[in-house]
Amino acid sequence: MTRWLDERERRAWRGYLAMHAQLNARLHRQLQAGSGLSLTDFDVLVRLTDQPEPRMRMGELAKALQWEKSRLSHHLARMEKRGLVGREECAGDARGSYVVLTARGREVIEQAAPAHVESVQEYVFDQLSDEEVDALTAITDRVLQRLHDAG
Question: Could you list the residue range(s) of the whole structural domain that residue 59 is in?
């Protein structure tokens, strides 16, 4: 038997979906206008800059982004043409490769990040109390843990 959402849950879920769509669209437009990056470009570059060495195995990057490898490969090809990333072979693994942040990629994300963070502050965190930020963190941690546990 289907467990339908009650009115409170439906309002929360639909509000979350609308917020997610509108926030992503706004952040994408602002990134595109300010730096020429898409939100997906930014996601890739952030994952690389978060590493001790700015590179990741293709499979690890695909998993971190929750993308199919073919989608990642096509997206990286477009980013490579713009000089944002490169690819290197993995020593000892002829089939594997690394995605590597280029100097141009680092320059672009370093220029884009301050305005992006300011937008996130303006549209999300400036609207929330400290307690609401803590609640949001607790909610995302719990849902992400459940997704992880579900495999």
Answer: 20-117
Write the pLDDT tens digit of every residue in 10-44.
999 999 999 999 999 999 999 999 999 999 999 99
Q: Which two three-digit tokens encode residue 68? A: 């199919």
**What is the end-to-end Cα distance of the chain in Å, rounded?**
24
Domain presence at residue 30: yes
Total Cβ atoms within 10 A of residue 62? 19
Q: How many domains does the chain have?
A: 1
Predicted structure pTM score: 0.88
Is 142 contained in some domain? no
3-class SS letters over 69-89: HHHHHHHHHHHHHCCCEEEEE
Which structure tokens are listed for 32? 């595109």
Are 145 and 45 a contacting pair, CB within 8 Å? Answer: no
